[in-house]
Specification:
Length: about 250
């Protein structure tokens, strides 16, 4: 059920959110998020990765990603433009999906997850980055009534995300929380004493909740499925046929 202050997919609100993500505070938060998931990304392998977010320019700087072909996707800008609720990608066509604060602002976050599941290959990875409603900043959101950017989206707690992913057939592999200090402390060396104290004693109260999940394999999938879907991402058909022929000869 949507709350009274759930974000509608209006161009004005999307513009406000995209503008917030280029502020110094937001960029500093992204750096903390990126540093926390760098080791996770280094363990994700495959051919194609899609990076979804309202500010694709940030995602182009993601570190640790070893997947050779990766692209950004968003409703306003990016290598590919499209709605998160109806991704313009073929079924089972990507090995990794990164959702950078997408679910909070979707009109139907569960539909976004279903779309992510549709385009993700079996054994592929889903990386979610969301604001933590039980953080210090989540409490501040309640004080302001959830109207101000960026505290104007859904309150998606850890249990709800685990339940949704379990129903879709995903295993959670890693979790982390970052951003325990005040935003004004993010730009200081070391993040301020609040950040250091929070990381040590109250790790789950961080501003951002990061979660890595892997899609289960329900049944063996022939290798030809992977190759037949790759042309949707820009590889010529004759290249696909040649690789497929070599695979059968081997």
């Amino acid at each position: 059920m949507q709350s009274a202050h759930t974000l509608s997919p209006s161009p004005d609100r999307l513009e406000q959110l995209a503008a917030w993500w280029v502020t110094p505070d937001a960029v500093a938060l992204w750096r903390r998020e990126g540093a926390a998931v760098e080791e996770w990304l280094s363990r994700c392998f495959g051919y194609h990765a899609a990076l979804l977010g309202l500010q694709p320019a940030l995602l182009g700087e993601v570190r640790g990603l070893r997947i050779p072909h990766h692209f950004t996707l968003g409703p306003r800008a990016g290598d590919v433009k499209g709605l998160f609720e109806a991704l313009p990608l073929a079924a089972e066509s990507v090995d990794l999906l990164l959702l950078h604060h997408v679910l909070e602002y979707a009109l139907n976050p569960h539909q976004v997850l279903r779309e992510a599941d549709r385009v993700l290959l079996p054994e592929g990875h889903l990386l979610l980055m969301n604001f933590n409603p039980f953080s210090f900043w989540g409490v501040r959101r309640l004080i302001h009534g959830g109207r101000r950017v960026p505290w104007c989206g859904h309150r998606l707690g850890r249990k709800r995300l685990h339940d949704w992913l379990g129903l879709l057939g995903y295993d959670v592999q890693a979790e982390a929380w970052v951003g325990h200090g005040c935003l004004r402390d993010f730009n200081r060396d070391g993040g301020g004493w609040i950040e250091q104290w929070g990381v040590r004693f109250l790790p789950r109260l961080g501003m951002s909740h990061l979660l890595l999940a892997r899609k289960r394999v329900s049944m063996p999938a022939p290798i030809r499925h992977r190759w037949s879907l790759i042309p949707a991402l820009g590889i010529k058909e004759r290249q696909v046929q040649a690789r497929h022929t070599m695979g059968r000869q081997a």
